[in-house]
TrEMBL record:
Composition bias, Basic and acidic residues: 729-753
Name used for this protein in its record: Myosin motor domain-containing protein
One Gene Ontology term, aspect cellular component: myosin complex
Family to which this protein belongs: Belongs to the TRAFAC class myosin-kinesin ATPase superfamily. Myosin family.
Renumbered residue ranges of the record's region Actin-binding: 570-592
Lineage: Eukaryota, Metazoa, Chordata, Craniata, Vertebrata
Keyword hit for Disulfide bond: no
Span of domain SH2: 854-946
Gene, per the UniProt record: LOC113573286
Protein species of origin: Electrophorus electricus
Binding site for ATP: 100-107
Amino acid sequence: MEEHQEDLASLSDLDEKSLLESLTLRFNQNQIYTYIGDILVAVNPFKYLSLYEKEVSEKYKYHEKSSLPPHIFAVADRAYQSMLGRLGTGPKNQCIVISGESGAGKTESTKLLLRQLVELCRANSQLEQQILQVNPLLEAFGNAQTVMNDNSSRFGKYIQLRFQNSSVKGAKINEYLLEKSRVVHQDEGERNFHIFYCMLAGISPHDKEMYGLLEPTQYRYLNGRSIQDDAVQHWSAKFGEVSNAMDMVGFEEQEKVDMMTILAGVLSLGNITFETTDSDALKVTEKCQGWLKATAGQFGVEAEELQRCLTCTMSVARGEAIYRFHNQQQAEDARDSIAKVVYGRVFGWIVSKINELLTHTLDSKVELNEIGILDIFGFENFAVNRFEQLCINLANEQLQYFFNHHIFLMEQNEYKEEGIQWETITFKDNKPILDLFLTKPIGILSLLDEQSNFPQATDGNFVDKLNSKFKANPHYDVVRSHCPLFAIVHYAGKVQYNASGFLEKNRDNIPASIRNLFINSVTPLLSVLFSATISRTGTLMPRRANLQVVDDNFNSTRKQSVGAQFKHSLAVLMEKMFVANPHFVRCIKPNASKLPDLVDRKLVMDQLRYNGLLETIRIRREGFSWRPSFKEFAQRWDPFCIFHVYLLCLHSISCMSILNTTELSGWKCGSSRLFFKYWHQEELARLLERLGKAAVVIQKNYRAVSCRRKFLVLLAELRQQAQQEREEEERRQQHLAEEERNRHLLMEQENKRPVSMPVPLPRMRKPQPRPRSILTGAAQVSHPVPVPRPRSKLLEATPFDNDLNKNADPIKPFGQPADEESAKEKCKKRNNTIRWFKETQVRKVAQNGTFPCWFHGMITRRQAEDLLTDDKPVGCFLIRVGQSREGYTLTYRGANRYRHYMIEMQSNGKYVILGEDRAHSSLPDLVQYHTQVGIKPFMELLTMPCGQRCNHEPDYEEFKAMMAPTVAESNEANVGEAVQEELDPVQLELQRLFLPLGQNPALEAHKPPVLKRMFDRRRRIEAAELECKAGQEAELKGRPIPRLYPSIRLAMREIQQIQQVWKTLLSA
């Protein structure tokens, strides 16, 4: 029975009760995933389950659906295989749609899908780790705690992974409708965005002073709440993850500092309050003057200009500037509006920066496939629902329509068009609700834009307009109340909306004076944010050049409203999804209390009903989810076609031939396409895999026979050649024997002649000594063929490295001449690497004028292994410079072999071991970190650095000259001391006499005791101040700081002094 429960489409009794019982039973057994055909249902367990370990991930790589239990990893694998064209269809873009209520587990499902997709296409590149770091970064800035979810996404995102063949080559993030109003207001039981609590808990006390941050209780935008002691450690660790994620993705250090300073300015801005003057104009209260100065310093603007923008609006009429002063409410609205737009643009810049860093290497000419993952805010129904909830629920209506259209409408229409007998399955169509929102010119969003264009229109006027237009609509309810309320009957239930603030939020205007002020900020990031343009979908588009731009009618009526931007972004999203092959994950929330092992049967049943899962089970059980055309099917599965040559153009006959060969059952044939069950794709893929294995066996045997034949032919030729050589040798021997006989005959004839008298020979000269050769012995000695020495087992599977000694002759394999071009290229790369190290790295690696003992310069892999061979323990390591690339390699001695880890240097100057998920500011920091945390995937700790071969001959010969400036500086210092020692005694005496009063020991003895005590006290104070200042300067030296750091520090001191005065007055 359990096997049937894994796929609800196989339930024998199909009703709501059996569906709920099956899901409840599996949930109680910690089986949170269930199939409905090819659709995955995921129930949030609200606890940790060991379903996502490395071993489980490996099982779901290239697996058959029926061989393993339902899992989120199976959806990732199916999407990846479909994208590569390994399943029923050819290569095609894919999208994974994750939907469900707020708190149903959509964000966690997205992270798991992303992780598994990266595992499937792992190519050991840094890009994969950068993609995985995007989620924690966006979570910190876009998620917050709500009454329904502790980690609720307050924005929507569509992640597009771009692939070339089977490897990921880039990623793009599309964000939708950030809930900016949360920055300035949170309901009871809710919190602001996570990043504020991360900053206040994770930043060091000194950095808090640098950014201008105080305790959380000081800030009105955080509702004056403190961070609980048990939560401080959580938020501090979260801040470390966010900082590391920004380093991994590639954010510059100065960009991080500017961003944190701007966020601190948002918090400070919320503490500014106003009071009226004698002339009925507004000004910032005396108590908040420090907050005004702090905000101005953090934003990089003048405090007077910021106060003017908050308290009045400037307009130009006939060339004359006219100032209109704000009342109390208008000034507070302007303050909150600035905070919202600043935070929204920081978030948009982060997304834009991520896209820039993750797509900079993509070639626009290369066609790439995509897998998109949609993680969008879930359906919401709070006690008070505002403009944000209206847009969120509209997005969920659009997703439900996409699901209905793909699962029910499109499928059943094709049955009718193709003449397939089918009993129509009714479903809850939400198209009328979408028309209520999106129809022009009388849809809710169109009427909202119309009212937003009238400056005197109110939220009450908007609701009255809706009541008059839609009172007869069955999906709209009129609410009788003094407040501007109305209700919409959504697919998930009736929701009542409070229209207060609808018009202002839809306009989303800020004064032009504020924009001009921030464009001229001394903080470059803030200037970039406000000089950027906003696309039709609401996406921030930073300008790459000429940041100082003329006024572009930012507040004109042509500017798109928030509702229009959201409507257009939804249309673009649906366009992308309709052209892709969708995979659905339906997330279910088991209870509203966020407790594990608890099922609220009524809540679960409500979700099953409005998601239409009962109807989905019916259409998946009885319908045909895979519907390829004759041509598509014949082209994809033509290996099964026996008469492929003759039926090339007759696709329908080819399809019948293929189906007869495979002996599939349960399919139907229409007029132009075939209709298959959801499990037919896997069955055909399994048959094709079996055919492929059979083809491999045939190829193996054919190649074996073919190679055998070739071998026999070559063997016969060799034998014939050997026979010919033997015959040739016999003829040669016979010829030599004949010549020997002839020589003997001649000698015999010579011996028979008469003997004559001997003739004396001339006397030979004494041999002279031979002159010495002018060639050196080294040139006369021929180089023997090098024989590689035996290697130890530690070095197995490690290729030999060429000797880098320029004087040694290159090895010529098999007697071939050396490749001069290759040698020149290698030398060029080596020189470029040395130049890179000299210009960018030598000051970072060298410490106190010397290199660390674990640094061994530019040595080969073979040389590095040789250094670690001589009685070195496990964990011994060294770092060397790459010979052909700008980077380093960490060589590590493991238990049974050596490992070589590549160290990449990112564009922001951070160091990362390839495959690791942590960035380091320097190589010593990297070494220190991995002495405590093992290197993945073997979790190996660095225990002992490998020293140099000899104290007099270090391994970094190429870099000796780079240390010359340091040596020269020390020599200059020694020379200076020597010169000082050689000064004339008269000069030394004059110098002693003209020393300052407090520094002349001779005069100190004649000083009166009172003056001596005064001078001692002053000297101690000055020394303490100098020591404190030197400590601060040393700490800040070499790291970026806020642009107006002195102003921020003075403002924070003023705030603390004012608070101390108020505490004293209150206590008195």
